[in-house]
Amino acid sequence: MQHDQLIDLTRRALKLARDKTTDLAPTQHHVDAREYTASEPHERDRAMVLASPQLVGYVSELPTPGSYCTKTVMGRSILLTRTADGSVQAFDNVCLHRQSQVASGCGVARRFTCPYHAWTYDNTGRLVTVPGREGFPDVTPKSDGLTELPATEFAGFLWVAMEPGTELDVAAHLGPLADELDSWGIGRWSPLGEKVLDSPINWKLAIDTFAENYHFATVHQQTFATIARSNCTVFDAYGPHHRLIFPLNTILDLDEKAEDQWVPLNNLVVIYALFPNIVISVTIANGELFRVYPGDRPGRSITVHQNSTPLDMSDDSVAAGAQAVFEYAHATVRDEDYRLVESLQANLESGARQRLVFGRNEPGLQHRHLAWQRALTLADSTPC
């Protein structure tokens, strides 16, 4: 993000903090409780997510030719490789023979061997070895291989489409946010690993926790609220995506400084909500990525949490500090946000109340749900 833009956002955040207010939506908004509990909305949600471009990681996870990483999207294992010419390719991580996974984790490999019967593929997905080949007269190593999925690197992130042969137009998907996301460079920072939360909450309930800071003063009293202001947010929408600015508690100190002395990221956290299921958080030293997926039933979701840092990870003390920050953020989401909303899920499923209310002070929350609603309405009206 350009410095002038950060300064402008800092001005807006500082004014809100001074006025003890927040950006406001035009009205309150209501959502039917069934959106979190019923099978029909859940299946529509799953189809919506799968039909969208999938942001699955940082480009820094494939640093050199020969690098590979595996990702899971709604129970489906994906293998991504960086080939000799530097391009990124993606495949269903499924052997042609008996459907075993041919790779796990991340690393460097030019070939992948199925652990079941040793069928072997190169990193372009081509089948190169079939032991006992006489038993498979219809298999042709030169033409057969792993099922390829559309893949690209864009704005510093790895993207795939879940349907072979479909168009993957990430630039069109991101629209005006593409250059801004790329400018941060967080997808090229050092990756710090991946943590998974398999939670008994609806995927929308999980994402709701990232869409407002109104809850900081209560849910995060001893954690995030000691760092960031509660119920104070700068909001901007970009089509189905949006950006939130969470001012830190230090922001009022800027009243004592000239603007040319401001260091915006010492006083702000920048949150991006990418349609339909991605949350990205940018601070001065961290680039967090949350991929939130609908589970196999309405009351289950999978959150994949990653982090990256621009800090020098060759210094052991710096690396340990970066990992500690990652652990702290993950534990807070797991033990405070998600643990609390487990009880919300139970209440929603009880049928005690038919609607949830989102306040004017929760514009990000409203925008997320309205974007999902518009997408689903459009899908319903599109001829098959």
UniProtKB/TrEMBL annotation:
Q: Which UniProt keywords apply?
A: 2Fe-2S, Iron, Iron-sulfur, Metal-binding, Oxidoreductase
Instruction: Tell me which positions the record assigns to the signal sequence.
Output: none
- InterPro entries in alphabetical order: Rieske_2Fe-2S, Rieske_2Fe-2S_sf, Ring_hydroxy_dOase_asu_C_dom, Rng_hydr_dOase-A
- Which coenzyme or cofactor does it need? Fe cation
Carries keyword 4Fe-4S?
no
Domain of life (superkingdom): Bacteria
Q: Which GO terms describe its molecular function?
A: 2 iron, 2 sulfur cluster binding; iron ion binding; monooxygenase activity; oxidoreductase activity, acting on paired donors, with incorporation or reduction of molecular oxygen
What this protein is called in its record is (2Fe-2S)-binding protein
Query: From which source organism is this entry?
Result: Mycobacterium gordonae
